[in-house]
Amino acid sequence: MSWKPLRVLTPRSILPALAVLLVLVAGAAAHANKPVPFGDRVAGPGGAEASPVNAQSVSAADLELKVGPGLEAYDRATGEHTWSYRREGATALYLSMAGESAVVVWDDGLVTSARPGDREVRWHRAVPGLADWLRGEGEPGADKRTEEQRRQLATERAAAALHTVQQSSPWVAVVTPNLTMGFRDADGDLRYNSKPAGNCLYDPTRTVGTDYAVLVPRSCTNSSGQQVSGGISGYRLDSTGWQLNAGPAVALKPLDGRRVLISDGPIVGPKVFDTKAAAPESACGSAAEPFAAVRPQGSCAAPEAAGAEQ
After folding, report:
1. Which of 193, 217, 195, 214 is nearest to 205 (CA)?
2. Among 34, 102, 118, 195, whose CB has the most other CB atoms within 10 angstroms?
């Protein structure tokens, strides 16, 4: 056996230990003073801090929700301002419900999901390029817009970008010209992100959603900058998506919670696409009708008539 004498702590040997201790203390102090992530501020009436622990849960149907500058909740029965959710340095532009969740687009490109009934902020997701597109900077005529016009443009684009899908497990789609992303609302999990191929751009302003899917048109140009045939990308979370051929000026119009009228010019003619079955409806009286995956709905009116009735 070899014996080693006990080590005597000298001033020189104590210095490293003190340095480690100082780092730990500084780290703890920094953590204690760390700002709330994403600048979140959730408050009850009069600005008092609110939390789901000390707040009575209510149904989202019992609340009237408004945006600007944050997400504001009011009691539908009394009109009382029950709570607010705000983010420092950001303005809420648009909200859409996904089940019991209020999904909000902010002007800094962040998308958040909150449970108004529980006064709880559930998740935050940043969408690349969203803030730039909301602002419209660098576009022709952008420097001539007034501040009010900039706010109006950002609000309109936020409404075009955000889509919530209700069936099965609610989810959220965010569409920009260069990217579309899908998030599961239960936990904010990213389920897909897709960029348009080649010289193509997604068109958020023509995008439509149903209770089952989101359909995103895309426009494309050739090497000389002329518009050529584009297409439609369909997205769902419970199955694979699909691609439909379409012209550059295709128009989409929801008919109900599952069907969309696709108008693609006088040559092709309108058709109805069923987003639940992920297939087009057969035309009334066509030879393929008995064998079609989706039979015509209702009284078998022509698609253009069905669109006019909505």
Report:
1. 217
2. 102
pLDDT at position 168 is: 74
d(CA 168, CA 257): 13
> What is the residue whose two structure tokens read 């108004």?
116
Query: Mean per-residue pLDDT for 73-85?
Result: 93
Compute the distance between CA of residue 83 and CA of residue 42 in angstroms, rounded to an integer. Answer: 7
What is the value of pTM for the model shown?
A: 0.78
Please give the Cα distance from 246 to 267 (Å, whole number).
12
**pLDDT bucket at 228, cuts 50 / 70 / 90:** confident
Strand pairing class (259-263; 81-87)? unpaired
